[in-house]
Amino acid sequence: MTYPLKDALRGVFLAALLTMLFHVAISDVDECAEGSDNCAQVCTNTEGSFTCSCWEGYTLHDNGWFCHGPKVDLYVEMQYPRVDVTRTDHTETLCRPSLGDLTLINGYHVGIKLDTGYGTSIDYLTDGVHYSSIGHTDSRYGLRLFDDAGNFRVNAFSSYFHPNSFSVTVNINENATLSMFEYNPPPGGHDGTTEWRKDGSVLPGTYTDCDLAIVNVQMSDEGLYECYYTGRYSDRKQGIMRLIVRECPEGKWGPPACTSTCEECNNGGVCDDETGQCICAPGFGGLHCDLGCSVGYFGDSCISRCARGTCQYKIVCGPDPLGCRCIAGYKGSNCNAQCSYGTYGSDCLQTCHCASGIYVCSRYTGVCSSGGCEAGWEGTMCHIDVDECSLGTDDCAQVCENVPGSFTCSCWAGYVMDSGTYVDECSLDIDNCEHTCHNHIGNYTCSCDVGYSLASNGWNCTGALPDFTNKLK
Length: 473
Known about the structure:
Elements: H1 4-26, H2 31-34, E1 42-46, E2 49-53, E3 59-60, E4 67-68, E5 76-79, E6 90-95, E7 131-134, E8 141-146, E9 161-163, E10 167-171, E11 176-182, E12 194-198, E13 201-202, E14 211-214, E15 223-229, E16 239-246, E17 252-253, E18 260-261, E19 270-271, E20 278-279, E21 284-285, E22 291-292, E23 297-298, E24 304-305, E25 314-318, E26 323-326, E27 330-331, E28 337-338, E29 343-344, E30 350-351, E31 377-378, E32 384-385, H3 388-391, E33 399-403, E34 406-410, E35 417-418, E36 421-422, H4 425-428, E37 436-440, E38 443-447, E39 453-454, E40 461-462, H5 469-472
Parallel strand pairs: 10-16
Antiparallel strand pairs: 1-2, 3-4, 5-6, 5-25, 6-8, 7-8, 9-11, 11-14, 12-13, 12-15, 15-16, 17-18, 19-20, 21-22, 23-24, 25-26, 27-28, 29-30, 31-32, 33-34, 35-36, 37-38, 39-40
């Protein structure tokens, strides 16, 4: 016996199942959305694959995923900037860690120069004992420094003190503070006094901590600084950090006159005092550092990628005067802590401005996943302050001053604020006084001429009519 309806339904079910299986089989994977692409700047999903492209003003490299820009893009990644010698015995300094040749940067050859701050050369070290080279077979170029390299290791094995930041950048004539914290107490204890060295020379004075204040910084103050317990320098457990000095005041470039105005550098970027161009914090690129690199990439053109697939426990050093920092999304003396909600970028120093709150803000780029920017901010990362004063969208009666994310009002000379809005009703002739107006903070009062009295409404004046009878006699 046959059941036409049942057979028909079975056929429909099988057809639907086959259609679903066929759809699953050919369903496209969006590599851009899941981050499995290798595009340095812009990823566009295509059916079964993806394509890479570049920001405006940049050109795609022959490898199909890196981009060249108008600036020489040279950053250095430090692997294991601080290590426990019981777990590993070396630190690595990598130059362009993800590229396979050394002539990709606008025709420039790339190499690493090791500056220990002591004026000595790496020739004093023995290859294979103190260091080894990282070459083309690793698709990376750099140096691997071992424990026996001693003070040639840039902060690699310092265990008594760690710097709060690997480098500090200030403008000339500003004040600088170099700070380190105790990471491990020395065996046998200590009286707590410390010493500082600059470029190998002991600085005068005795300290009870590792905080060094430098007033009115000059170019001669630039260099490598070390802090350690008094008398324990030979332990090789000192903290090391670098002070970088821009030769111009903030916002200016072109020493010694420094009369040129810098480009606007966003997201922690620093103006190069020699060229006026922006040097972007790791994780951002573009002429104004207002473009976010794909996660794990860094450099002004986002041309370098963290080695071994992770950016934790690494610092990235850019050209001076940027210095060394954690890559976008991380912070801490070991660059292993993720940014807290509401912060983003390199060392997590940037503040989110998302209208929908801190939880929709990318800890890498500051981009809001929904809701757009909160009032007073704009841009792809909500990092650009809206100048309400210039746009005329403020409600100030007299003087408007723009501040980040908002504005404030003030008055002309001789005027005072009235409940948040500066108004002198008498001078503006918006009072109701029939005779004389007297301005006060928040209001005004009226008075009348001689022979008149103020009416009950507070602004009209009343008085007796003149007696013309006697004048007619």
